[in-house]
Amino acid sequence: MIGYLESFIEQYHKWTLDYTYPFITSTQLNYYLSQKKKRLENKGLRIEEDYEHVKGEITGDLEKKSNPYSVHVLHREARHILKYFKGDKVIASFKEPVVLYASLLDKDGYEDHIVKCDNCGQEAMASVMRNGCPYCGTRFEMEDVYPCFTSFYSVPGLVEREKLKEDIKKFLLITGVGSAIIVFILSFISYKEFVLWGRILISLFSAAFGGGMFMVSMYMLMSITLLIRAFWEAGRSLPLLGGINTDKKLKEKMKKYDPDFSYAYFEGRLISLFRSIAFSDSRKDLSIYTGDSDLSFLDDVLDLSYRGVSKLQNFAVEEGRIKIDMKIFMHNTYADNKLKRKDENFTVTIEKDGKPDDLNFNITKVHCPNCGSSFDAMHKKKCPYCGSEYKLVHDDWVISNITR
């Protein structure tokens, strides 16, 4: 499954370059990307983003099954490269170690199939046609093809482990040898009264001792510097400690309603919904947001980077509906007069009827409970055919409130 993650990273990188939508992503995720594209264009900006490989990277796959569907939460260590452009000028650039997480929805026994374009008659794989006919450009609605990615986020890391080891070795070797050479030369010049072979021996001994001591000193200095950085990051992360046991607590509380509850899947869903709402230019029309609060404080956000921790604030069940208050810790980028990055936390209320997650549910193809018609409910709260209100909360998680 990790191979799919590599394909997604490659396709997402291409999207940042020319806005070619990935063909391995769900329609819901593509909605988020379309809204992010609008936000960047409205601010007169564009980005270039990639997740490069790092040496000794650790990968993994957390799986949740619900026959015939399964969700794989894939993760990989990476070097996150992000550049902001205004015109052709780079106005901000960031490079940092992260762990990338992405939720991949799969369907057992599913095989990609041939689709025929109604306009030009050409045939292609469904995974290609979903982004429009490659021959004539005609676009048409299509269900998700499998497997597909439904959400992704990255969690910042402290250092690249293998790179740090190599950098330390190189630095100590260069400084050690350099200092030894300098000590040798100074010693050789200083001991003029000795015979040549004596001067050489004394200089070699001095160089070995001096170079070794200098290497030890530099190693201690680098260790102290790294320790200070670790303490600084620890201080910055102190508020996150309250969320350490959230996984365990929420699993215990959800056991009664969903025995196979996956916190990894829920976490990805929470961040995905939050980002889609934050970047939307028509929040009042979104069925995934049922609140009426003023969310204008999210209008200038350019990037919402999840710090990998959420804290369970409250869990309640009212008339069969689960209502959860989660504090999510983020590191965000805003476009004001200039780009600003800062740590923030938001309290998000997320709700759903008390039943197991339906991995087959597709918000872009729901059926009206009144007339049975199928329509895209992502940004339509009412059936376009009979006018009946559709309440997404009966089928999937929705967010009812966001505060900071």
Rg (CA only): 27 Å
Give the number of domains: 3
* Proportion of strand residues: 25-35%
Order of helices and strands: HHEEEEEEHEHHHHEEEEEE
Give a quick account of the main beta sheet: strands, pairing sense, barrel closure: 5 strands, antiparallel
**Structural class by helix and strand composition:** alpha+beta
Mean of all residue-level pLDDT scores? 83
The unreliable regions are: none
User: Which descriptor suits the 3D outline?
Assistant: elongated
What quaternary form is this? single chain
Q: Whole-Å distance between the termini?
A: 36 Å
Number of strands: 13
How many H/I helices?
7
What is the helix content? 25-40%
Describe it for me?
With 404 residues, the protein is α+β, with helices and mostly antiparallel strands. The protein folds into three domains: 2-156, Nuclear Transport Factor 2, Chain: A (Roll), CATH 3.10.450; 161-236; 243-403. Helix content is 33%, strand content 31%. It is built from seven helices and 13 strands. The chain has helices spanning 2-18, 27-42, 126-129, 161-190, 196-236, 246-254, 263-279, and strands spanning 46-52, 59-66, 69-86, 89-107, 114-116, 123-125, 148-156, 301-318, 321-335, 339-353, 366-367, 374-375, 398-403. The strands form four sheets. Strands 1, 2, 3, 4 and 7 form a five-stranded antiparallel β-sheet that branches. The protein has a four-stranded antiparallel β-sheet with strand order 8-9-10-13. The protein has a two-stranded antiparallel sheet with strand order 5-6. Strand 9 (321-335) and strand 10 (339-353) form a beta hairpin. Helix 2 (27-42) runs parallel beside helix 7 and helix 4 packs antiparallel against helix 5. The chain is elongated and about 105 Å long.
